[in-house]
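With this grant's support, we have paired protein sequences with backbone structure tokens. One protein thus recorded is set out beneath this paragraph:

_____
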Amino acid sequence: MVSRGRFTLTGIVRGPFQSANLGYWIDAECVGRGHASASVAAVVSMADEELGLHRIQAATLLHNAGSQAVLRRSGFEKIGIAPSYLQIAGGWQDHVLFQRILS
């Protein structure tokens, strides 16, 4: 089986927070076919129904409009900009932060 993407929940915090970070990438040839949106929906459902989480956070590079659209379609809201959030290709990159509050 060939991997066309990966979707992860990391940094799961229990106790009063009940939160996690959503991360994902999808192969360029799969972009625009709804695979990312469907996969994010599946991860959100699992986080809510199976893990009992309250909040999921996600971050995108400032210029990644496609990923930001996936998050918005999936019920995430923009909550701000995080300067020097993640080190990518040897440099610290600013990111747009999103969150979704679950039931």
Notes: The domain at 5-101 is CATH 3.40.630.30 (Aminopeptidase).
